Amino acid sequence: LSQGLPSPMLRCPSQRLLDRIVRRYAEVPDAGSIYMDHLTDRDKLRLLYTLAVNSHPILLQIFPDVEGWPFPRYLGSCGRLVVSASTRPLRDFFSSAPEMAADLALQLLAVLRSMATNDLNYFFYFTHVDAGTFGVFSNGHLFIRDASTLGIIDKEEGSQLIDGQQEYKDIFSCLTVDCQSPFVPCDSIREKHSLVMVCQDLLPKLLAGKFLAPVQERIDTFLHHCAHGLGDNHSANEAMAELAEILKPLRSCDSRFAYRYPDCRYSDKY
């Protein structure tokens, strides 16, 4: 049923991922079964339509924040209206103080790291990022605000993309995307994919001109190198560790960062 859906989330599907979607889909009274017997035809149509139009609410349900995933809490939906916890978009912080910018950049790196390496062996990658992709709670904690552009590759089972699926079009495809829009081949996605996109489109806007010359030069040099793909000698984890080492001394520990205050006064971990 999911073949050909335009959602980035299902471009590289695995049976394990599909089972998780069905089991955790919360818009039915008896969610929890890995079979679709508990879904009426109307439920199935609603699930497929939501996946086709905007997979964001589905991702919030199957990877909930209470389990440590960097998404806002899903509270419910009605039609195309989705209710979740409120955040401010990252764009609101592009002109923030240097210590705030450094803190948000470090959190952004931590989110990318958790999306690439986690206990469930799912590799999350962005197909697009912009200033509204990430948001910040009132306590200073950064989350993924718009998950609709996230793709998922199952590192445990691999992709079960069948021959010809890229040409297959479901009945909803043309509602949201160009019908001729090509899929990104699953085997072309590298671990650096999301980091490079963030280095191109977000980190320069967040970190530009914020720090004293020697530090700013190191940051600018790194971002330039990162935006051009990092080369073959850098892994994503090594690159993120390099930038984190520059940024950590630049953040501060005070009540503006309530998500880690006052713990940061007693431990370098925060």
From TrEMBL:
Transmembrane segments: none annotated. The keyword Transferase does not apply. This is DIA1R protein. Its main location: secreted. It is found in: Secreted. Belongs to the DIPK family. Residues 48-228 form the FAM69 protein-kinase domain. GO terms for cellular component: extracellular region. Keywords: Secreted, Signal. InterPro entries: DIPK2A/B (IPR020519), FAM69_kinase_dom (IPR022049). The keyword Hydrolase does not apply. It comes from Rhabdornis inornatus.
